[in-house]
Amino acid sequence: MRRLALVLALLGTLAAAMAPAQTENPALTAQRAAQMLERATLSMAEATDAQDRVDALTETIRAYEEGLAALREGIRRAAIRERSITAVFEAQQGRLGRLTGVLQSMQSVPAPLLLIHPTGPVGTARAGMIVSDVTPAVAAEARELRRQLEELALLRALQDSAMGQLSDGLTGVQEARVALSQAMADRRTLPPRVAADTEALMRLTQSAESLDGFATAIRALDVQGDGMNSLPDFADQRGALPLPVRGRVLHGYGQADAAGITRPGLVLIAEPRALVTAPWHATVRYAGPLLDYGNVALLEPQGDHLLIFAGMGEMFVRAGDLVSAGDPVGLMPGQTPSREELIVADPQAASEDLSQTLYMELRQAGEPVDPTDWFMPQDQ
Question: How many Cβ atoms are within 10 Å of 248's Cβ, its own excluded?
Answer without folding.
Answer: 16
